[in-house]
Amino acid sequence: MPDLFQQQSPLAQVVMGEPRGNAPRIEEKAFLGYINLRGRPSHTGFIAAVLKVLGVEAPTEPNTVVEAGDNRIFWLGPDEWLIVTPAGRQGQVADKLRGALKKVFSSVVDNSSGLTMIRISGENAGALLATDCPLDLHPREFKPGQCAQTRLAKAGMTITPLADGSGFDVVIRRSFADYLLRWLQDAAIALE
Fold first, then answer.
1. Were both Cys, which of 3, 131, 141, 168 would link to 136 (CB 3.0–4.6 Å)?
2. Which DSSP state fits 33?
3. pLDDT tens digit string along 123-161?
4. Sign of torsion, CA 127 173 118 95?
5. Going along the chain, which residue ranges are E strands?
Protein backbone atom coordinates (compact mmCIF):
# COMPACT_ATOMS: atom_id res chain seq x y z
CA MET A 1 0.00 0.00 0.00
CA PRO A 2 1.43 3.43 -0.93
CA ASP A 3 2.27 5.92 1.79
CA LEU A 4 -0.36 8.62 1.35
CA PHE A 5 1.60 11.06 3.50
CA GLN A 6 4.95 10.70 1.77
CA GLN A 7 6.39 14.10 0.95
CA GLN A 8 6.68 14.71 -2.78
CA SER A 9 8.36 17.56 -4.61
CA PRO A 10 6.03 19.60 -6.83
CA LEU A 11 8.47 18.93 -9.67
CA ALA A 12 8.96 15.21 -9.03
CA GLN A 13 7.27 14.30 -12.33
CA VAL A 14 9.24 16.77 -14.46
CA VAL A 15 12.41 15.60 -16.16
CA MET A 16 15.27 18.04 -15.70
CA GLY A 17 18.02 17.13 -18.12
CA GLU A 18 21.51 18.49 -18.44
CA PRO A 19 21.69 21.92 -20.09
CA ARG A 20 22.88 22.00 -23.69
CA GLY A 21 25.05 24.65 -25.29
CA ASN A 22 24.79 27.99 -23.49
CA ALA A 23 21.52 27.15 -21.77
CA PRO A 24 21.52 27.68 -17.99
CA ARG A 25 21.13 24.86 -15.48
CA ILE A 26 17.61 24.70 -14.01
CA GLU A 27 17.06 22.64 -10.87
CA GLU A 28 14.64 22.44 -8.00
CA LYS A 29 15.91 22.85 -4.45
CA ALA A 30 13.23 20.57 -3.04
CA PHE A 31 11.89 20.29 0.49
CA LEU A 32 13.37 23.48 1.96
CA GLY A 33 11.43 25.05 4.81
CA TYR A 34 9.61 28.37 4.34
CA ILE A 35 8.42 30.37 7.34
CA ASN A 36 6.51 33.63 7.00
CA LEU A 37 7.34 35.99 9.86
CA ARG A 38 5.44 39.18 10.64
CA GLY A 39 6.11 41.69 13.37
CA ARG A 40 7.18 45.21 14.20
CA PRO A 41 10.90 45.73 13.70
CA SER A 42 10.68 48.84 15.90
CA HIS A 43 9.71 46.68 18.89
CA THR A 44 12.81 45.75 20.89
CA GLY A 45 11.19 42.50 22.04
CA PHE A 46 10.66 41.45 18.42
CA ILE A 47 14.25 42.26 17.45
CA ALA A 48 15.64 40.44 20.50
CA ALA A 49 13.51 37.33 19.94
CA VAL A 50 14.46 36.99 16.26
CA LEU A 51 18.13 37.56 17.09
CA LYS A 52 18.00 34.95 19.87
CA VAL A 53 16.44 32.27 17.64
CA LEU A 54 18.12 32.98 14.30
CA GLY A 55 21.41 34.52 15.42
CA VAL A 56 20.84 37.61 13.28
CA GLU A 57 18.32 40.44 13.12
CA ALA A 58 15.70 40.34 10.39
CA PRO A 59 16.78 42.74 7.63
CA THR A 60 15.04 46.11 7.73
CA GLU A 61 16.48 47.51 4.52
CA PRO A 62 14.00 46.91 1.69
CA ASN A 63 14.72 44.09 -0.75
CA THR A 64 17.62 42.57 1.15
CA VAL A 65 18.52 39.06 2.30
CA VAL A 66 20.66 38.06 5.27
CA GLU A 67 22.12 34.66 5.99
CA ALA A 68 22.28 33.20 9.47
CA GLY A 69 23.95 29.81 9.54
CA ASP A 70 21.86 27.59 7.29
CA ASN A 71 18.92 30.02 7.22
CA ARG A 72 18.22 32.89 4.83
CA ILE A 73 15.89 35.74 5.77
CA PHE A 74 14.26 37.65 2.90
CA TRP A 75 12.78 41.12 3.49
CA LEU A 76 9.28 41.07 1.96
CA GLY A 77 7.86 44.26 3.44
CA PRO A 78 8.25 46.68 6.36
CA ASP A 79 6.83 44.07 8.76
CA GLU A 80 7.20 40.81 6.82
CA TRP A 81 10.01 38.32 6.16
CA LEU A 82 10.44 34.91 4.57
CA ILE A 83 12.80 32.58 6.40
CA VAL A 84 14.19 29.74 4.28
CA THR A 85 15.52 26.82 6.33
CA PRO A 86 17.18 23.53 5.45
CA ALA A 87 14.82 20.62 4.80
CA GLY A 88 13.07 19.37 7.92
CA ARG A 89 14.19 22.23 10.17
CA GLN A 90 11.21 24.56 9.59
CA GLY A 91 9.11 23.09 12.42
CA GLN A 92 11.88 23.51 14.97
CA VAL A 93 12.66 27.07 13.83
CA ALA A 94 8.96 28.05 13.77
CA ASP A 95 8.38 26.60 17.26
CA LYS A 96 11.39 28.44 18.66
CA LEU A 97 10.22 31.70 17.09
CA ARG A 98 6.68 31.26 18.45
CA GLY A 99 8.08 30.59 21.91
CA ALA A 100 10.42 33.58 21.83
CA LEU A 101 7.69 35.85 20.43
CA LYS A 102 4.93 34.64 22.77
CA LYS A 103 4.41 38.07 24.38
CA VAL A 104 5.21 40.12 21.29
CA PHE A 105 2.72 41.11 18.58
CA SER A 106 3.79 38.84 15.73
CA SER A 107 2.86 36.00 13.42
CA VAL A 108 4.84 32.86 12.51
CA VAL A 109 3.39 30.66 9.75
CA ASP A 110 4.99 27.57 8.22
CA ASN A 111 4.37 27.81 4.46
CA SER A 112 6.70 24.95 3.54
CA SER A 113 4.03 22.85 1.87
CA GLY A 114 3.05 25.73 -0.42
CA LEU A 115 6.41 26.90 -1.78
CA THR A 116 9.45 25.56 -3.57
CA MET A 117 12.70 26.94 -4.94
CA ILE A 118 14.07 26.77 -8.47
CA ARG A 119 17.75 27.59 -9.04
CA ILE A 120 18.74 28.98 -12.42
CA SER A 121 22.52 29.11 -12.84
CA GLY A 122 25.12 29.44 -15.51
CA GLU A 123 26.39 32.00 -17.97
CA ASN A 124 22.97 32.86 -19.43
CA ALA A 125 20.83 32.63 -16.28
CA GLY A 126 20.11 36.36 -16.30
CA ALA A 127 19.37 36.35 -20.03
CA LEU A 128 16.87 33.51 -19.58
CA LEU A 129 15.03 35.29 -16.78
CA ALA A 130 15.15 38.62 -18.61
CA THR A 131 13.01 37.19 -21.41
CA ASP A 132 9.93 37.85 -19.26
CA CYS A 133 10.98 39.39 -15.92
CA PRO A 134 10.51 43.17 -15.60
CA LEU A 135 13.51 43.62 -13.27
CA ASP A 136 16.97 44.69 -14.37
CA LEU A 137 18.88 41.56 -13.37
CA HIS A 138 22.30 42.84 -14.43
CA PRO A 139 24.85 42.37 -11.60
CA ARG A 140 25.50 46.11 -11.38
CA GLU A 141 21.82 46.62 -10.45
CA PHE A 142 20.73 43.38 -8.72
CA LYS A 143 23.50 42.12 -6.47
CA PRO A 144 23.97 39.23 -4.04
CA GLY A 145 22.31 40.17 -0.76
CA GLN A 146 19.32 41.68 -2.54
CA CYS A 147 15.90 40.18 -3.25
CA ALA A 148 12.72 41.25 -4.97
CA GLN A 149 9.15 40.13 -5.34
CA THR A 150 8.21 40.23 -8.99
CA ARG A 151 6.83 38.01 -11.72
CA LEU A 152 8.16 35.71 -14.39
CA ALA A 153 5.91 34.41 -17.15
CA LYS A 154 2.89 35.74 -15.23
CA ALA A 155 3.84 33.77 -12.08
CA GLY A 156 4.62 35.65 -8.88
CA MET A 157 8.03 34.93 -7.40
CA THR A 158 10.66 36.07 -4.94
CA ILE A 159 14.12 36.18 -6.53
CA THR A 160 17.65 36.63 -5.21
CA PRO A 161 21.04 36.44 -6.92
CA LEU A 162 23.34 33.64 -5.75
CA ALA A 163 26.19 34.75 -3.48
CA ASP A 164 28.81 33.79 -6.06
CA GLY A 165 27.00 35.64 -8.86
CA SER A 166 26.48 32.44 -10.88
CA GLY A 167 22.69 32.66 -11.09
CA PHE A 168 19.48 33.12 -9.14
CA ASP A 169 17.22 31.38 -6.64
CA VAL A 170 13.51 31.77 -7.32
CA VAL A 171 10.91 31.01 -4.64
CA ILE A 172 7.61 30.12 -6.28
CA ARG A 173 4.25 28.84 -5.16
CA ARG A 174 3.99 25.08 -5.43
CA SER A 175 0.96 25.38 -7.70
CA PHE A 176 2.98 27.38 -10.27
CA ALA A 177 6.19 25.33 -10.07
CA ASP A 178 5.43 22.86 -12.87
CA TYR A 179 4.23 25.63 -15.18
CA LEU A 180 7.23 27.86 -14.47
CA LEU A 181 9.79 25.09 -14.83
CA ARG A 182 8.35 24.04 -18.19
CA TRP A 183 8.26 27.68 -19.31
CA LEU A 184 11.93 28.07 -18.32
CA GLN A 185 12.86 24.89 -20.19
CA ASP A 186 11.10 26.10 -23.33
CA ALA A 187 12.64 29.58 -23.09
CA ALA A 188 16.10 28.05 -22.54
CA ILE A 189 15.96 26.32 -25.94
CA ALA A 190 16.50 29.71 -27.59
CA LEU A 191 19.75 30.11 -25.61
CA GLU A 192 21.27 26.79 -26.70
1. 141
2. E
3. 899 999 999 999 999 999 999 999 999 999 999 999 999
4. positive
5. 25-29, 33-39, 65-68, 71-77, 80-85, 106-110, 115-121, 148-152, 155-161, 167-173
The Cβ of residue 102 has, within 10 Å, a number of other Cβ atoms equal to 10
Q: Which residues contact 160 (CB under 8 A, 6 or more apart)?
A: 65, 72, 74, 144, 146, 147, 148, 168, 169
CB contact set of 188 (below 8 Å; sequence gap of 6+): 19, 23, 24, 26, 128
The CA-atom distances, in angstroms, between 127 and each of 51, 76, 146, 190, 192 are: 37, 25, 18, 10, 12
Cβ–Cβ under 8 Å, residues 122 and 24: yes
Residues of the chain with pLDDT under 70: 1-8, 10-21, 192
Output the pTM of the full model. 0.90
Contact 93, 5 (CB under 8 A): no
Specify the length of the chain in residues. 192
